[in-house]
Each structure stands twice: as structure tokens, then as C-alpha cells.
Design a protein that fits this description.
Elements: E1 3-7, H1 12-23, E2 27-32, E3 47-50, E4 66-69, H2 79-99, E5 104-108, H3 124-139, E6 144-149, E7 152-153, E8 160-162, E9 174-175, H4 176-188, E10 195-201, E11 204-205, H5 206-209
Parallel strand pairs: 1-2, 1-4, 2-3, 4-5, 5-6, 6-10, 7-9
Antiparallel strand pairs: 8-10, 8-11
Helix pairs in contact: 1-4, 2-3
Length: 211
């Protein structure tokens, strides 16, 4: 059985991914800064590693086959944390994954990371960080899939998405649950390496559109 490392397992999308993998009895390791944030999973067989992404977290990659990078600095932090987490920690994770010869690295990025110059917004530093992290992963030689979801909501997931960018920003929103479901589907497939998907709420089943 392959083993999956989830970086950012205490985040909103990361927790959804972690919980589903635990419920399906997959072999999973959760990397978090504070393990108390996963207290609702403390009675499971989940392996939890505590580490600060601003430091050395290479030990979390021992024996790992797949990596899901779902970490983020958060909307309330400044540009310094955006740089250190969304860019530098992602870069270190790619380096550790390459050294560990992982089979798959799934990066949870963001809509707009393809071309930060096209968006005049307060989140431009975040998009630049995501862009550079994505580019580094693509050039690393590590097998990868990148997902770039639209604005995230806490609406109930429907398992319905589209990968065609809508015309308006309002239509770009997607529930976090559907992002998590998309990532888990990608994890289950062996033929999606090297692909980049934009994700939005839509009308198509995840397993029919992510090909």
C-alpha cells in the first residue's frame, strides 16, 4: 500500500482530504504545526508529524510515495508569511520529495497563478508566490499534478465541477469539499502526471472531467 503525506493537513481543504483518507483506511501521514488541530482524528491510526514549515521538515518524507501540498499562509497574514509558506515551504517540499523519490506530488495552487500580472488585486503577492512554486515543481523532475481552484467557499460539496474557466468571478467559486474530492480522485489515478487543472463549481462529475 502506498503512503501519502499531506502537508497542511490542519487547513480546511487539508482536513477534508485527511479525514477521507483515514475513513477509507489509506496509509496517510499528516504534517501539521499543532497536532491538537486534528483532535477529531486522534482515535484513528493516523500518523501525525508536528513540524514548522518555516524550518526543516524533511523527516516527514521518510517512506512516502505521494505528497499533497495543501498548505497556505492564510488570508489574514502578511506578505512575509506568504513568501515563507506559499513559496519557500513549497519549494522545500519539492526538494524533499525529489530526494525521497516520491511517485506523485499534487500541488493545491490557485486560480490566477498562471499569470499573476493579469490580476490587479490585494492577493497579487499570494498569486506570485503560487506561480513561482508551481514553476519550480514543474521544472523539478518530480512527477506532479497541479490544481488551481477558484475562490473557495464552505458550501456543501456536490461533487460537481468544471475545468473550463467561467466568464465571471462569481461563477468561479468552488466548495472546499469539491476541491478535496478532486484531489483525492487525482491521487487515485496513475495517468494524470504532468497535468494542470483549474477547478470551479460546475455540473460535471469529478471522475468524468479530470482526465
Amino acid at each position: 500500500m502506498s503512503k501519502t503525506l499531506i502537508i497542511g493537513a490542519s487547513g480546511q481543504v487539508g482536513q477534508l482530504i485527511t479525514k477521507t483518507l483515514v475513513e477509507t483506511e489509506e496509509d496517510v501521514r499528516a504534517l501539521v504545526r499543532d497536532k491538537s488541530k486534528l483532535d477529531d482524528l486522534k482515535d484513528s491510526d493516523l500518523e501525525i508529524v508536528e513540524a514548522d514549515l518555516e524550518g526543516d521538515f524533511s523527516q516527514a518524507f521518510d517512506g512516502i510515495d505521494n505528497v499533497i501540498f495543501a498548505a497556505g499562509s492564510g488570508g489574514s497574514t502578511g506578505a512575509d508569511k506568504t513568501l515563507l509558506i506559499d513559496l519557500w515551504a513549497a519549494k522545500k517540499a519539492v526538494d524533499y520529495a525529489k530526494e525521497a523519490n516520491v511517485k506523485r506530488f499534487i500541488m493545491v495552487s490557485s486560480i490566477g497563478a498562471d499569470d499573476p500580472e493579469a490580476i490587479e488585486s490585494d492577493i497579487k503577492p499570494y498569486l506570485v508566490a503560487k506561480h513561482m512554486a508551481d514553476q519550480y515543481l514543474m521544472a523539478s523532475g518530480v512527477p506532479f499534478t497541479i490544481v488551481r481552484p477558484g475562490p473557495l467557499t464552505n458550501d456543501e460539496g456536490q461533487g460537481k465541477i468544471t475545468i473550463k474557466r467561467p466568464n465571471s468571478r462569481e461563477e468561479m467559486a468552488i466548495p472546499r469539499a469539491d476541491v478535496a474530492k478532486s484531489v483525492l480522485f487525482i491521487l487515485s489515478k496513475d495517468d494524470l502526471n504532468g497535468k494542470i487543472f483549474e477547478l470551479f463549481g460546475g455540473t460535471y462529475d469529478v471522475d468524468n472531467v479530470l482526465v
